[in-house]
Specification:
five-stranded antiparallel beta sheet; four-stranded antiparallel beta sheet; Hsp33 domain; 28% helix; 195 residues; 5 helices; alpha+beta; 33% strand
Length: 195
């Protein structure tokens, strides 16, 4: 079963959330008949959107992540409501690319870095908030980290991963967001980076 866990540190201005999303990513793979690198890229984007959707306080709000990196996968789109329910699409899901290393999918190359990541937050106001940044790596987690730093000025650590089996099924999928709240010190940042 998929789930999201949210946390706030007791003695530091830090909040975090983690997602276990294997079933969601497997279902997306089945719907779109994706090959491994597309499954990984779409899965990472879906999980990021789901966590970001749960951060919205407005009941009818939504978050849309659109990635256009210029790579062979084409564009990736994911939309989440405020409960973290998400749906998405990858333009060229049947792309097969060489591995980056032993059993290592080259998501960054398949997504590309010659484009942008756009986040649209519909907070049920007159106009939605739209933030766009150039892609950093195409690996998606690093791009989400850069989005939060550049567009929302929130120091963030993000990790997203999808493990695809030889039979194309999803063995595991998960990730996390760790964010500093106002008032965080350099010592708090050092603690997070030290792990």
């Amino acid at each position: 079963m998929d789930y999201i866990v949210r946390m706030i540190a007791k003695d530091a201005p830090i909040k975090a959330m983690a997602i276990q999303g294997r079933e969601m990513v497997q279902r997306a793979r089945e719907i779109h008949h994706t090959f491994p690198v597309a499954t990984a890229a779409l899965g990472r984007t879906l999980m990021a959107a789901s966590m970001m959707g749960q951060q919205i306080k407005e009941k009818d709000g939504s978050v849309t992540i659109r990635i256009n990196g210029g790579g062979p996968l084409g564009s990736i789109l994911a939309v989440s409501d405020s409960d973290g329910n998400v749906r998405g699409y990858v333009q060229n899901g049947q792309i097969d690319v060489p591995l980056k290393g032993p059993a290592k999918l080259d998501v960054g190359w398949a997504v590309g870095t010659a484009g942008s990541l756009t986040v649209i937050k519909d907070l049920r106001m007159k106009e939605p908030y739209v933030g766009t940044i150039p892609l950093v790596s195409g690996e998606i987690a690093e791009d989400i980290t850069a989005y939060f730093a550049e567009s929302e000025q929130i120091p963030t650590a993000c990790a997203l991963g999808v493990l695809v089996e030889k039979d194309l099924s999803v063995a595991a999928a998960g990730g996390y967001l760790i964010q500093l709240l106002p008032g965080a010190s350099d010592a708090d940042i050092d603690k997070i980076e030290a792990g």
